Structures are given as C-alpha cells and as structure tokens.
Amino acid sequence: xxxxxxxxxxxxxxxxxLAIIRAGLVAFDRIxxxxxTNPTKSPLFSIEERIAMIEDEFAEDRRVEADCxxxxxxxxYARSKGVNVVLRGLRAVGDFDSELQMATMxxxxxxxxxxxxxxxxxxxxxxxxxxxxxxxxxxxxTGVVPERVQQRLAVKMAPRAATG
Length: 164
Ligand code: PNS
What we know:
Helices cover 45% and strands 19% of the residues. It contains 6 helices and 5 strands. Helix 4 links the parallel strand 4 (85-90) and strand 5 (114-119). The longest helix has 17 residues, at 93-109. It binds 4'-phosphopantetheine. Residues 7-9, 36, 73-74, 102, 105-106 line the site of 4'-phosphopantetheine (PNS).
C-alpha cells in the first residue's frame, strides 16, 4: 500500500493544504498529515487544535490520518512510520529554492526516502501566515480556509480585537 507523509505546521490547515492532500490521494492510498511541534515557533493554535482541524476535514476518509511530529528529522519520522515518500506542495516559483534545498538534504540523509511535489494550482497565494494576518484584521477568508477553521480563527482573534 503506497503511503506518503505530508508534514508541516498547519497553523491552521488551509484549502491549499486540503487540495494537496486530495491530489495526493490520487497517487497514494494513505496520507499521514504530520503536524510539527516546533518549540522555536509560537503557533496560534495548539497541536491538539491543529490535529482536530485536520481530523474535522477528513472524518469520513480513513485514508487520511493526522499525527503529531515532535521534532527530529523528517526522514527519521517517515521511516518510523514505515513510509518512504514525503509529499510537498509547491505554490509559486518562490517556494522552489527552499523546497529544492530541503528535498536534496533529505535525499542526502536518506536516499530511500523520496520527495514528491504537487502543484497548489488555484491556491498558489494561500499561506497559513497570510491567513492569520487577514483573520487578525477581520478579513473574509471564505474559500481559502474550511468553514470550521474560519470559525476557530474568529474565536481566537476575538479577544485580540477586543483589546485592540
Ligand atoms: O509548514 P512548513 O514550515 O512548510 O513545514 C516544514 C517542514 C516541517 C517540512 C520542515 O521544517 C521539516 O522537514 N522539518 C523537520 C526537520 C528536518 O528534517 N530538517 C532537515 C531536512 S531539511
């Protein structure tokens, strides 16, 4: 059974991520969405909230599993799961340099682990960082994040709006 790891911060998951996962399911039987707990970043959503948002979107689809990736090397995490494909999304040319670097470093570390890229297509402009900025300024995110994520963003941002 062909499986892939799709790792990232997912703070929060966007429709761009969902499009990559859905496209990935054309090629893979199973995708593990691995949420990185990065102690150097201060995420808006807790690891539990980020996993819950992913699970909400794939409640009906057993091919997608959300997991917590607690640091260390991505290729080691992939091996620990018995998976040798890392799935990455590419938005615009700006992504290419860093993705090439990461994929090549991963190949050096683990030649048995292959990185596969899928184009983000319509969602080339969507990033979690931009989503949080727009949400904090009260912008409408319909169509760029799932409705439930939009609701969670509104709840998170409400106290900030109140305190100015
Ligand atoms: O959401 P992101 O920031 O695009 O995710 C980046 C991620 C998690 C894929 C990347 O930071 C990563 O692979 N981290 C694990 C550390 C690692 O393996 N580093 C060496 C290979 S580049």
